[in-house]
Design a protein that fits this description.
Strand content: 5-15%
Number of helices: 23
Number of domains: 4
Structural class: alpha/beta
CATH architecture of the largest domain: 3-Layer(aba) Sandwich
CATH topology of the largest domain: Rossmann fold
CATH superfamily of the largest domain: Response regulator
Largest sheet: 8 strands, mixed
């Protein structure tokens, strides 16, 4: 029910807006005599500039083959008052030139302006009127009226420029366009007489890409009209965006304006709703803002606001407009809300304030000047009034007094300062005048006769050649010149539009695209000078398919969506990302490791067992303590060297064993501290040699005990082996074998300091690389061999008489020794860094303490606490 009521309201509005003589639901009016309609402006002059203006829109009925051709145009529905300023800027520039004695002295400029109605047929027809007789259109014939027309200024729309170029090129008449989307063609080969008083459009595309990259907007929508210009805009811009990592959420085309105006049906309403639902997906819209696109867009916004029930255009975005936009409303849009465009950014042809133009507008009156067929209709449309002698019949409209002031009009309808398009047209007139002036200065006598003969084809060809090389400073202080392609050698300004509820606005210049600037300054923008739409709270909007992937995460593409849409996945262990939106994580250098958030690399700590840490202090204390105890035991044995218990088992071997144990405890200190070349070479070799001496002493003592008991048997041949000679030979041979292994190790692949960066994630292990692992295990293996042989011999001799036999203690000590070093291997291989070193130190200290305690503690007990037992009688008595 609500939708039906809404359609009735819109249908009633359409009836009110439509002229009375409509055909086939098109808003058109028919003029019987096309030469009598008022929309032209003629001013006499010795040299005439032809102009095709664009102030009105034309919606044509379908013309069938059997119908008589007719001219139709919109009289009041589509009127853009601001475009009348283009006419006024031309009139103002011609007036200045005619009053300036330094440009074309004694030669007056005139002009003839026709309306294009933004329609191909009307453009062709009015272009022919500029070239033919005033009575009727007869190609190739001219009679009096525009015989001295030397150039034509093209209309605002690019298609109009092309329509004109196809005719003017046949007559070799130079054409100067002041539109942005003029055809990008080779002027020399295809349009040799075509010039554009605007920069190359390629600079605008580059500026659009730079602007989006500057604000990191990678998820945008593109809107253009459903015509050749819109198609060209999308086909050119979209690949450029993709190349720079910017995705388009959609490429939306607005329908033709006639579809919206002529058909307020449910289909159009649905189309409007669908369009703005699509637009709602993004926060940044790039709009090819030619007049047709903007007119359609504003009308669709009007329909959408009614459909939405808000009565205002409430979809607030960042609008980025191309340089065709001039923030102009049609007369029937005067009450539309423009707040939606607050904070919009647009490109504009570089312009400056032209002195005297505002004063020129302030004295404008509908009765002056004569010959202006646009002024009265502009006045009526702009001020929404009717002159008393007007043929139009409308109710509820005030009478035009002629005292209305242009500066009272909203900026969206008319501006008192020169707009960008008006500035381009102003420069076009001056470029033509300066070219003609140079022709006068360089003419010869023969040429003078031709010039005075109303110019003919000669002056037109000369004007075409001089336009290529023209360069001058205009009254606003800007340099105007054409490049080799016949385009204005200039750039674009970036404008920030600040709108107000009373339909006024401010144009703030916030940046520039200057192709002539040095590298690095081609694109500049002052972000702090930009006013964003109020919904953004003056915070730069984000235009992303999804939020940024922050450091510590990498992007993972979403299937079925553009490359700007992705998921954020944490970096794998051991890898980081230190920038936003990275595609891959990477590993830190070997001497660094990732922090907790995996967004930064931290230098690894050096890992080695120091003297100052608790574990190192403990080992130092134990090593010194055991060394001191060993020294005390050695002192006790030396002091009581004459007692039977010391003499009983070769006191020389006992001294050597105690000294070797003392050195074994001290050699454990070589494993503490930061490894160096010397300590690495001494660690394992010193330990291996010293321990081999200790175990060799135990083996010698054990063999000596066994041989001593065997020699006591009658007739035993072992007596000759009993003595210090055998013990010394065993000790020396075992020592030399181990020493040979160590020397070979040092000569072939000695240990060296090494930095192990891979074993522990957060640490650099400073260790001694064994050089040759084989030699390292050969040293240990030889020690195990000696210990096992000692254990076996001692085990066999354990049942000999106790008083003369320390084999039991040696057996137990070797059992402890072998157990410690057998458990050493798996413990050593399963630990890393300083704990690997700690395992070896512990094994050295524990095995040495086992030997010291098991062998010497019983003897020290007797010597110190039970001296009565330290006698020969007791030692020789059998229990």
């Amino acid at each position: 029910m609500a939708d039906t009521f809404l359609l009735l309201i819109l249908f009633f509005l359409w009836l009110q807006l439509s002229p009375t003589d409509c055909k086939k639901h098109s808003v058109v009016c028919t003029i019987n005599d096309p030469f009598q309609f008022p929309y032209q402006y003629y001013q006499r002059g010795e040299l005439i500039i032809g102009v095709i203006a664009s102030q009105f829109g034309c919606v044509n009925d379908e013309i069938y083959f059997w119908d008589h051709p007719k001219t139709e145009f919109v009289d009041e529905f589509i009127a853009i008052p601001k475009n009348y300023q283009h006419v006024l800027s031309l009139v103002f520039s011609v007036k200045q030139i005619n009053e300036n004695p330094k440009i074309l002295p004694n030669v007056s400029l005139g002009f003839h302006i026709y309306e294009s109605y933004t329609d191909a047929r009307m453009t062709f027809q009015n272009t022919m009127k500029l070239l033919t007789t005033a009575e009727r259109i007869v190609p190739n014939f001219k009679c009096n009226k525009n015989e001295n027309m030397i150039t034509v200024i093209a209309g605002l729309d690019s298609e109009i420029s092309l329509h004109m170029a196809s005719i003017l090129g046949l007559y070799k008449i130079p054409q100067v366009a002041y539109s942005i989307l003029a055809p990008v063609l080779s002027n020399e080969s295809q349009l040799p007489s075509f010039y554009r008083i605007v920069p190359n459009e390629a600079h605008q595309y580059i500026g659009l890409v730079h602007l989006l990259l500057h604000f990191q907007w990678t998820w945008v929508g593109i809107v253009a009209s459903d015509n050749d210009n819109g198609e060209k805009f999308m086909l050119t811009l979209t690949p450029m965006l993709f190349q720079h990592g910017i995705c388009t959420a959609f490429n939306e085309k607005t329908p033709a304006i006639s579809q919206v105006i002529d058909n307020f049906s449910s289909l159009v309403l649905i189309q409007a709703k669908s369009f703005f639902w699509t637009v709602s997906k993004v926060k940044v819209l790039v709009v090819c803002a030619e007049p047709q696109t903007m007119t359609t867009l504003i009308w669709m916004a009007f329909l959408y606001s009614f459909l939405d029930g808000t009565k205002e255009f409430s979809i607030h975005k960042v609008w980025i407009m191309t340089a065709q936009w001039n923030f102009s409303l049609e007369t029937m849009q005067r009450d539309f809300d423009i707040q939606a465009f607050n904070g919009a950014l647009s490109f504009a042809v570089h312009s400056n304030k032209v002195p005297g133009f505002t004063q020129f507008l302030q004295v404008l009156h509908p009765s002056y000047p004569k010959g202006d067929g646009f002024l009265r209709i502009f006045w009526q449309k702009a001020f929404n009034c009717l002159f008393s002698d007007s043929n139009e019949q409308k109710q509820r409209m005030a009478a035009c007094t002629g005292q209305e002031k242009l500066d009272s009009l909203p900026d969206a309808l008319f501006e008192m300062s020169m707009t960008g398009q008006s500035y381009s047209l102003y420069n076009a007139v001056y470029a033509i005048a300066h070219s003609l002036h140079k022709i006068y200065l360089s003419r010869h006598k023969a040429e003078s006769e031709q010039i005075e003969n109303k110019f003919g084809m000669f002056i037109k060809s000369k004007c075409r050649n001089y336009l290529k090389r023209i360069s001058f400073n205009n009254t606003a202080g800007d340099t105007v010149s054409f490049d080799k392609n016949g385009e204005l050698a200039a750039g674009f300004d970036i404008i920030n539009w600040v709108t107000f509820p009373n339909q006024s606005f401010l144009k703030v210049k916030v940046g520039r695209v200057d192709p002539q600037a040095s590298l690095g300054e081609v694109f500049t923008v002052k972000e702090e000078a930009i006013t964003w739409h109020s919904t953004f709270n003056q915070v730069k909007p984000l235009a992303l398919c999804n939020n940024h992937c922050y450091p510590g995460y990498s992007r993972k593409k979403k299937e079925g969506l553009p490359f700007c849409c992705y998921d954020c996945t944490p970096c794998p262990d051991g890898m980081i990302s230190n920038q936003k939106d990275t595609d891959e994580c990477f590993r830190c250098p070997e001497d660094q490791f990732p922090n907790k958030n995996q967004d930064q690399c931290i230098s690894k700590f050096l890992n080695f067992l120091t003297f100052s840490e608790p574990l190192g202090i403990t080992f130092v204390f134990l090593a010194l303590s055991f060394s001191l105890i060993t020294a005390l035991v050695l002192g006790i044995f030396i002091k009581h060297r004459d007692t039977p218990i010391v003499k009983a088992n070769n006191c020389d071997l006992t001294y050597v064993l105690l000294i070797s144990l003392f050195l074994c405890f001290l050699c454990s200190l070589l494993f503490l501290g930061k490894p160096h070349a010397v300590t690495c070479s001494l660690r394992q070799t010193a330990f291996g040699i010293i321990y081999s001496v200790a175990v060799s002493c135990i083996l010698s003592k054990t063999i000596t005990v066994v041989l001593a008991f065997m020699a006591t048997k009658p007739g035993s041949s072992m007596r000759k082996w009993v003595g210090k000679r055998l013990a010394n030979c065993i000790l020396l041979s075992c020592f030399l074998i181990q020493t040979g292994i160590c020397v070979l190790w040092l000569c072939t692949a000695p240990p060296f300091p090494d930095f192990n960066m891979k074993s522990v994630v957060k640490e650099i292990i400073v260790e001694c690389n064994e050089g040759s692992v084989t030699m390292f295990y050969c040293v240990l293996g030889y020690l195990w061999l000696l210990a096992i042989v000692s254990f076996i011999v001692a085990f066999q001799a354990r049942k000999l008489p106790d008083s003369f036999n320390e084999a039991k203690f040696i057996t137990f000590s070797m059992l402890v020794f072998c157990s410690i070093w057998l458990s050493f291997v798996p413990s050593y291989l399963s630990t890393k860094g300083k704990y690997m070193v700690a395992v070896e130190i512990f094994s050295i200290l524990a095995s040495g303490a086992g030997l010291l305690g098991c062998i010497f503690s019983p003897k020290c007990y007797i010597i110190i606490l039970r001296p009565e037992l330290n006698s020969k009688d007791l030692l020789t008595r059998r229990h």
